[in-house]
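INPUT
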Amino acid sequence: MISTIRVIIVEDDFRVAKINRQLIEQIAGYEVVSEQRTASETIAFLRQSEVLPDLILLDVTYPTARDSIYFGVCGGNFPT
Amino acid sequence: MIRIRKEDLSIYRTKNKPFFNLHLKMISLIGALSITIILIIGGFMSFFVTDTLETQIGERALSVAKSVAVIPEISQAFESNNPSAIIQPIVQKIQAQTDAEFIVVGNQQEIRYAHPAPERIGEKMIGEDNERALQYGESYTSRSTGSLGNSLRAKAPVYLNGEIVGVVSVGFLVDSIESIIWGYSKEIWLVLLGVCTAAIIGAVLIANYIKNVLFGLEPEEISHLLFQKETILYSIHEGIIAINKDGRITMVNSAALKLLTGDEQRADEWIGKPIQESFPNSDLPYVLEHGESVFDQERVFSNHIVYVNSVPIFYEQELLGAVATFRNKTEIEKLTKKLTHIQQYANALRSQTHEFANKLYTIMGLTQLNKKDEVLDFIRQETSIQQHWTNTLLDNINDPYISGLLVGKLSQANELQINVSIQPDSQFHSPVSDVNRQALLTAIGNLLDNAFDAVYDERAISREISISFTDIGQDLLFEIDDAGPGINDASLDKVLTRGFSTKVGTERGFGLALTKNAIEAANGQLSIEPSELGGTYFVVSLPKDK
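OUTPUT
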């Protein structure tokens, strides 16, 4: 049996995040486990998660550069 | 710091140098001049030596001739039957004692009584130069060719009982005289040849030295560079003052004169003056002393506030002087303000585009999910929010520049998920003057950017900003509160200084200083207090135009 794919949505615009959640939840086998607004919030969330997500749906166009850069720097520190 | 190396200057040299270049010209000119002078000196000295020696030898011959002519035995021998038998031995002895080549004694008919070659005794004297002695009794020297060859000879008459009976001829052969002269002049010519060689070596050394000093540049290239330098210096807007290593002004360009004196024609009054006397607050003496550059210093020169860069000039480790370049502060601030406004509008446009793309995405998503009613609701809602903001701002602010900037900034806040609230009754109804508009645009743009950064800080209480503006009363007031971490007391004094920032980054620390300057230029005030929201509370107050 194929287990559910756990997805985190990282999106600063709540309207877009909401649409993305609805679009993902329409697909069988995918589950949105969390919505995060910023890079720092996401990293904090991931650090305290017991089970890491299978997929991160990440908005690459952020109004502040610091979020994109933060991901770039911290991304490699998590086990895959 | 300007460090000039020799190789840096080689770029100014033309690639195809003419064969007869400055170096060669100098060597040829100095060499030719030296050789000519030496030849003239040598020729004159040779002539002098020849003339002196010939005169001396002539006089010596004449005195020998006169001495021989007055010997009683010789004059009396003329009456004897065989005069040569008496005269020849006497003359031979005398000739051996002197250096004379020959001593010849002849009678009125020029028949020889004595001669170095005894077989020629009795023959007629050759030379045809005895007339003055035999006819007129004169003693003299002459040059003529005799039986022994070309000679310098002295003639003296021989008297017996008051009458001229013969002639004594004492001679030195020209060949012998010339060899004596050559003996003297050979040394002179040798010395002159040495001097000539030294002059040519000197010419080469001087030419090499000048070539080095001029970095191998031809005179035409130097004059071209000079014109070029003058044109550059007098066409740029920066004021430039250069000093030499003694601290004296060597160059002032027209922009500097215009800024400092208002008269760009009187450069000569400044040249040569010590910098400390002309501009006591200049950094140039410090730069000269320490060999270090000083950048972006705010200084007052002749009642103008200027930004000054002062740099030392080094050539191959040697300090040659220093140069200060400066610009009027007002001009720079005008440019910076323009640039800041452009950046703010660009940011507003970018955030509006991003916001628009997100809205389109939302509509597309809702459509894909077949939520038709929600699409319509969303579009109505968004339109009314947008319209509300735009209408509120356009209705309450008369000035399109200020309302445009605020609409842009609110879009940016929306994108950043920052909640900006505009206090009710906010209004700018009266017309705004240019000075106040510039001050307000600079203040609103920078203070809002500052607030956006503040509420994004990790220590911020919430992402709340509140603005309020009014033109009721004597002043235009613009207030902004943020829920950021606030500015602590230690930073409060410094925060309005150019270049100071609590934030990290290279282009930080200009916004608040620019805001303060713009407000002061409009005779207004900027005050900073703690905000009720928890962060900073800025109040801009500008006097209305009368």
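end of record. Chain A touches chain B at residues 12-16, 19-20, 22-23, 26, 37, 40, 61, 63-64 (CB under 8 Å).
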